[in-house]
Each structure stands twice: as structure tokens, then as C-alpha cells.
Amino acid sequence: MFPRMNACTRRDFLRVAGAAAAGLTLAPRTSRAADARIDVLVSEPIGPVTADLYGHFIEHLGGVVYDGVWVGERSRVPNTGGIRQALVDHMRRLPPAAIRWPGGCFADSYDWRDGVGPLAARPRRTNFWINDMATLPDSPGKYDPNAFGTNEFMRFCRLARGSPYLAANLRSLPARDFYQWVEYCNAPAGSTSLAELRERGGDRDPFRVRFWGVGNESWGCGGNFSPEDYAIEYRRFTAWVPRYDAPLSFVGSGPNAGDLAWTRRFLTKLTEKGEGALNGLWGWALHHYSWNTSRGATTDWTAGKGDAVQFSIDEWYELLSEADRMDGLISGHWGVMGELDRRRRVKLVVDEWGAWYRPGTAVDPTHLFGQQSTMRDALLTALTLDTFHRHAEKVAMANVAQLVNCLHSLFLAHEDQFVATPTFHVFEQYAAHVGGQSVRTVFSAPRIGYQRVNTAGSFWGLGGSATIKDRVLTLTVVNPHVSEPREAEIAVRGAVPGGNAKASTIAATDIHAHNTFAEPRAVQPRDASVSAPRDGVIIHRFPPASVTRLTFDLA
Ligand code: AHR
């Protein structure tokens, strides 16, 4: 473990380091001593925090769509038009964000025509994930009945107040199928045969789908392309797609985590005929999963994964460090994008993120990649959303993977059972940021030491983000320390924190705590008290292993 500084030295360090980092002259110290400091720089705006940073992702994978979202109209599980009611009710508590469908890797095997028209005539198809499900019991996740298709997905979006983000098949269908799917969705009522087919499916009015992913992970399951070959396909797929009266925002299949060369080589090829090609690239997708908790022992995709629920303290910090790589990934790809997109037309779309554990904690054996979600995942969620806020000028959309019964899910569901995970509670708690302006923050706190296999690891001691909306400051803070509370001085620069201070905290005495069908409220937010500001500074004690939202009126 790292040697710990004594309290006095640590406080002095914090005052100097924090001030230097923020370029500040510090206000006189308050009478109470704190071991951390948070400066909120109200006059340094970053960008707007939109609901789309709180987006979702549902793929035809294991128990996500069938059992998770779709239970069928004749099910004894409460539903609206076949869509699980409890899911809809919970989604309506969240920001109305983009929902990505039908994949993921599944998207590049999907023919949208299989999922439209009369239900009885829809074909059953082998699912993309069949090989990964070989030892699992048969389920609609293996042989897709196509009961949930485009009209059903749009119904789900309407019920959940989400906006559709469709991922098109670039690997195994021609560009014609892509623009005809656009026609099916967006052509005016009665205008074409596909518009009439949509109407026979129950939707006369166009869906006006704006967000279209052009393939998925085209470096891997989406075609195993080189970036240059994918750029050529991308130009072909996006050329002269009918607009109707909906703006079309195309998202390119971006890198696997830190692969900067994929970004540079794609953009170089895309723009070889001129920078105008960038006008057809609204978003550049970035995927990052936190999966390796081996602490440096291996980089093997299977061996590196740990258990979702049984983990050591060192694995707790290692997983959070993995998640914290998001910050550098965003900055790294953004930097490369700026080399070729000098006018900054293209934004990042982090359309897959979350923790990915080894199998063993799914609520049903048919739920491929189903996993539990503990306090550790609450902190991962919070620090990732904070990262998006701090990069709000760069990231236009983000979609957690995946909504239900899968990796990093907000919900677990099987038949008539349903539970919200700690990740859902963080999403709901953080929703107060949406619609606000992200402003710069400086966090200063002693780092936390932990053990890796051959090296010493260390993780930051306090982190978060702040937004301002209608003269209300929302500050969210993660204390990652498994056992120590952290007391912080919170100084708001450029405004005076006034009254109406409120706090909501998600914490549990056990870092492995999680919600189950039998015990659905083991992890949930609780209101906490906040002391009144003194000399413009608020002192707040953040419990160990916690996520906190503070709100104050600004005078
Ligand atoms: O989310 C599961 C899978 O992870 C997605 O299908 C794919 O895009 C990624 O590799």
C-alpha cells in the first residue's frame, strides 16, 4: 500500500495542489478542518448536459429483449402491448434519452424485414449469439421469433419516452436495405409501399428516426474491416439516403477503446475526397467495457474477468480504475478527431459502456451475459456519468450496455419478477444534471493505494462533476474509499451558495451489497443532511464507498 500522509500534511498538500490546479487564490480557511476540497468554477462552462448522455441500449442478446423488454401481449406479466409494464414505469423516472437497438453485434446479422408485417408470417432465425449460448437452454435468445421488430421497438420508445437510435446492418446486407429501412421508418404516411407496410403494422405516422448507426464494431463482429475499407463502405451507405422531413444523424462505428489508429485512419480515408464528408458523420462511436480485474496478471479476455459479486478490495479499486480510463479515451480520440475535423463537426457517441464480469450471476440461465450489479457498479456508473459531464462539449450521446438482464444493467427481470439495480438508482439520482450547464470542478483529496500483482496501484480520493440550471447547482461526488469517509470543503467560485441545500446518498455498509428479487431495496438512495455554508464554503462528509448528489440554490 502507498504510505499515507498524516492529516496535517495532507490538508496542506490539498490546499496547495487544489489551488494550483485550479489557478486559484484560496479563500481563508473555514474553522472546521477537512481532508479534501472541491472547487466549483461557475464561470468556466464546459457544455450542456443533455438527456442523450443518459441513453440506453437493447440488443437481441440472451434475456435483454425477450423476457427483459418483451413479454408478449398475452403474457400474465403486466404489460402494455407486449412491453413489460414495470420496465416502462421505471424508464419514465429517467431522462427521455436515446435507446439503441437492435445491437451490438446482432445488428450486423439482422434483416429488419424479418421483424415487420403480420406476426404469424415472421420467420424464426438463428441469433448471432447462438455459439455463445451453445450450453444454455433453448430460448428466444437462441432462435429469434422476430415478435419484437421495428414497430414494437418504436412502441417501446414511445412508452419509455425515449428516442430511437437504430443500428444498421453493414456486414451482411447491402446499402439498399439500409435506405429502405429509413424509408420504412420515415417516409410520409401512404407515400410508398413501405410506408403502407408500416401502417399495416399499426403506425400510420412516420417514426422520424434521426439517429442511425452505420454498422457496429466494424473492426470486429461488424465485418472485420480495416479502417480504410470501412470508410469506403461508410461513404457508400450514407450517400443519398432519403431525408423526408427528419434530420438524419449518422454514427460511424468507432474504435475499440484505446485504438487511436482506427480513428485516425478512418477519418483520413473518409476525407480523402474532401472535408465535406465530415458533414455526413454526426457521431463517432466509442466502446469501452471495464472487464479486467486481474490487476495486471493477464490481458486475456476470459481469464481477466472477475465475479460480479464476490470481489476483493483490490479488485474494487482495479475495476473503478478500468472505468476511469473513459476520461483518457474521450480526450485521446477527441484529440485525433481534431487533426482531421478542425471545425469540430463530429462528436463522440459512447454507445457501449459498463462493467463486464465472468458468467455466474445471471437471474436466469438463458440470460447470456446476465450479471448482478453491486455498490461497485453504482460507483462505476456515477464516475462514468461524471466523466461525460466533464466532457459535455465532446460527447453528444452515451448508451449504457445494456438496459436489462445483461452487462451493467439498470434492471433484472425474469417472468413476473423485476428489480432495479444500483445502476438505475444512480441514473435517477444523476438525472438532476440533465438540462444543466456543466462547469469545471477541481477535486483535491488524498489518493488511495491498493495492491496490483507486480506494482502498487493508486486511485483518486474524491471525484465528480457539477452543473448549473436555473441558478441551482447540482454537484455529484464519488467517494471510492471502501472504509473511510471523506470530509470536504466545497467552495463555489463565481457565485454564492445560498439556501435550500439538499443531499441524496447511495451507500451501503457492505461494498458487495446488491438488489435481488427477494431483497429489492438493499441499495437505494437516502436523503442526507447538509450543513449551511459558512463564509461561502460548505463542509460535507461523504460516507465510504458512496455516491452523493448535492443541490444548492445559488444567490
Ligand atoms: O454488449 C455486448 C456486445 O459487446 C455487443 O454486441 C458488441 O457491440 C460488444 O462487443
Fold blueprint:
Blueprint lengths: L6 H16 L13 E13 L7 E2 L21 E2 L2 E2 H7 L6 E4 L23 E2 L16 E2 L5 H11 L2 E6 L6 H12 L6 H8 L10 E4 L12 H12 L10 E4 L7 H11 L12 E8 L22 H28 L6 E9 L19 H16 L4 E6 L10 E4 L2 E4 L1 H9 L6 E8 L3 E4 L4 E4 L3 E7 L2 E8 L6 E8 L8 E5 L19 E3 L8 E6 L3 E8 L2
Parallel strand pairs: 1-21, 2-5, 5-8, 8-9, 9-10, 10-11, 11-12, 12-13
Antiparallel strand pairs: 1-16, 3-4, 6-7, 14-15, 16-19, 17-18, 19-20, 20-25, 21-24, 22-23, 22-25
Helix pairs in contact: 4-5, 6-7, 7-8, 8-9, 9-10
The structure holds alpha-L-arabinofuranose.
Defining traits:
binds alpha-L-arabinofuranose; 9-stranded mixed β-sheet; 25 strands; 555 residues; alpha/beta; 8-stranded parallel β-sheet
Distinct compounds present:
alpha-L-arabinofuranose
The side-by-side strand order for the widest beta sheet comes to 23-22-25-20-19-16-1-21-24
Largest sheet: 9 strands, mixed
In round numbers, the mean pLDDT is 93
What percentage of amino acids are in beta strands?
15-25%
Rounded to the nearest angstrom, the radius of gyration is: 24 Å
> How far apart, in Å, are the first and last alpha carbons?
44 Å
Q: What overall geometry do the principal axes of the alpha carbons give?
A: globular
The secondary-structure class comes to alpha/beta
Number of helices: 10
What is the number of beta strands?
25
- Which percent range fits the helix content? 10-25%
Poorly predicted runs of 5 or more residues: 1-31
